[in-house]
Each structure stands twice: as C-alpha cells, then as structure tokens.
Amino acid sequence: MSLIAVVTVFVLAVFVGLEVIAKVPQTLHTPLMSATNAIHGVILVGGLLVMGSADSTGMQALGAAAVLFGTLNVVGGFVITDRMLEMFKTKRRGGGK
C-alpha cells in the first residue's frame, strides 16, 4: 500500500471517528468505552502484524506507534471503566468487613 493511500485512510478514519463520537449521548459513554477497548485490542493485533511484516523502518515505526497508542487506550479505558463501576458499589457502614 502506498504512503498516500495509508495517509488517506488515516485521515478519513479520523473524520469518521470524530463524527461518531461527537454524536454519542453521555448516557451511552460507558458502553462505548467497552466497545472501544475491544476495537483497540484489534488495533494492537494489527500493529503487531505491521511490525512483523514491515519492509522499512517507517512501517516499523508506524506499527510501533499503533501498538503504543492502542495499549495506552486499552489500559486507560479499563482504568476509567473500573472507576465508573466503583461508583455503583455500595459502601458498608461500621467497622465490620
């Protein structure tokens, strides 16, 4: 795939992503976070495949960036989801366990 085709797909993905995210109501944010965690898991696999079959240093760097950013999003998404779920747990009163 040529560099122009890769950049074109990237730019189109950014615009589509921004349009989709901008229209999501706040009540659907938590389910959306779970879905994006799954999507970024796929991005991690894609980044690893790119790094494994890369012919140039530029492709290896692009794959490494995909793996880095995908990992940050997956970990951050799980941390945020865990914090949100903590809000729904009941807290016990008193000194018992």
Describe this structure in words.
With 97 residues, this protein is mainly alpha-helical. The chain has a domain at 32-88. It has 3 helices and no strands. Helix 2 runs antiparallel to helix 3 (57-86). The longest helix is centred in the last third of the chain and has 30 residues, at 57-86. The model has no long low-confidence stretch (mean pLDDT 80).
SSE order and pairing:
Layout: H1 3-22, H2 29-52, H3 57-86
Helix pairs in contact: 2-3
CA-CA gap between termini: 59 Å
Poorly predicted runs are: none
Mean pLDDT: 80
Count of discrete alpha- or pi-helical segments spanning 4 or more residues: 3
Helix and strand run: HHH
Major sheet description: none
> Strand percentage, roughly?
under 5%
Radius of gyration: 18 Å
Which structural class fits the helix and strand makeup?
mainly alpha
General shape: elongated
Q: Would you report the number of β strands?
A: 0
Please estimate the helix content. Answer: over 70%
Keywords:
97 residues, mainly alpha
Task: Summarize this structure briefly.
By secondary structure, the chain is mostly helical.
